[in-house]
Design goal:
- This protein is an alpha+beta fold.
- It contains 9 helices and 4 strands, in the order H-H-E-H-E-H-E-H-E-H-H-H-H.
- 26% of the residues are buried.
Length: 310
């Protein structure tokens, strides 16, 4: 059998093996899909945590909300005192009307019921910019002690720190789960290929007896493992897209409200990372699983059976 023609025949044999053992093949693909789906979702989660962390870290401002009913002279005097603080580089007054307009503009579709509400329910305040990130905490402390007219002082750095801690926790947990699932995927694919080999052991012995090289015997089973890996990769990418789309639609109203219009990273922007990553992991998992099985089988069965009897 010629080299090119032989490869074509063996490749077709590998494809036929996938269909012949479709129950085990389906199990292999489903396990691999589960593993890659978690890899994809953990990756997207990490990307969005990084975006959130960068977003909140960049908000190097402190909001000082005022008690209601202050006169304009009191507001102007308080502003001058805030600007005089050594840790402050800038101070901008935001009235309740301006705050209301900004919220409505950012979340117009979610706040239709508030369109006729008096904007005065939102407090007046100052957006205070510290000289540097290192001056943030001292700025907060100074504002809290500056004047009773300052009702509440808020900043976003605590949120950024919490996001960073959550990101690390998810990364550790995700890596552990992914590692376990990858091992399970290799085992399942290995078992699938091994089942194929045992069903075709007579044919393998015949090929061995006529002098077929080990690489020639391995080829159809390698094709089978790679096909299972590619199928799992394609299915997993589709599942991750649908799940991420659903998460985006479900969470966006809450993100608009709680995180000031933060948007999840677009899925298409992550394809350059996920697409090659999924297919590389799928092919390697399928290839490794098949090679483990065929190598062990050839070592334990074929060569053993081919030894002449004493």
């Amino acid at each position: 059998m010629g080299g090119g023609g032989g490869r074509v025949y063996l490749t077709r044999m590998g494809l036929r093996n996938v269909y012949t053992n479709r129950t085990m093949s389906t199990a292999s693909v489903l396990v691999l899909v589960s593993c890659l789906m978690l890899i994809g979702l953990v990756t997207l989660l990490a990307v969005n945590f990084n975006l959130m962390f960068a977003e909140f870290s960049s908000r190097n401002v402190v909001m000082a909300y005022l008690v209601p009913g202050l006169e304009q002279e009191q507001v102007d005097s308080l502003r001058a005192r805030i600007e005089a603080l050594p840790s402050v580089s800038g101070c901008e007054y935001i009235s309740s009307q301006e705050a209301y307009d900004m919220v409505m503009k950012r979340n117009e579709s979610d706040f239709k019921l508030l369109q006729d509400v008096d904007p005065s329910f939102m407090p007046d305040g100052f957006e205070v910019s510290p000289v540097s990130q290192s001056q943030l905490e001292s700025t907060v402390e100074q504002l809290q002690q500056l004047d009773p007219a300052i009702d509440t002082v808020r900043h976003f750095q605590g949120v950024a720190a919490q996001l960073s801690a959550l990101e690390k926790a998810f990364a550790i947990l995700g890596a552990a789960v992914i590692g376990i699932l990858l091992l399970v995927s290799v085992f399942i694919i290995s078992s699938t290929v091994q089942a194929t080999m045992y069903s075709r052991q007579q044919e393998i012995k015949v090929m061995k007896s006529v002098g077929a090289a080990p690489a020639f015997i391995r080829w159809p089973f390698l094709v089978e493992g790679v096909v299972l890996g590619l199928a799992g990769s394609a299915a997993a990418l589709l599942v991750v897209f649908l799940v991420y789309l659903g998460i985006d639609k479900a969470l966006q109203p809450a993100l608009d409200t709680l995180l000031g219009g933060f948007r999840l990273a677009p899925f298409r922007d992550q394809l350059k990372l996920l697409l090659p990553g999924f297919f590389v992991v799928g092919v390697l998992t399928g290839g490794v699983g098949s090679m483990v099985s065929i190598t062990r089988y050839l070592k334990e069965k074929v060569y053993e059976d081919s030894e002449p009897e004493a």
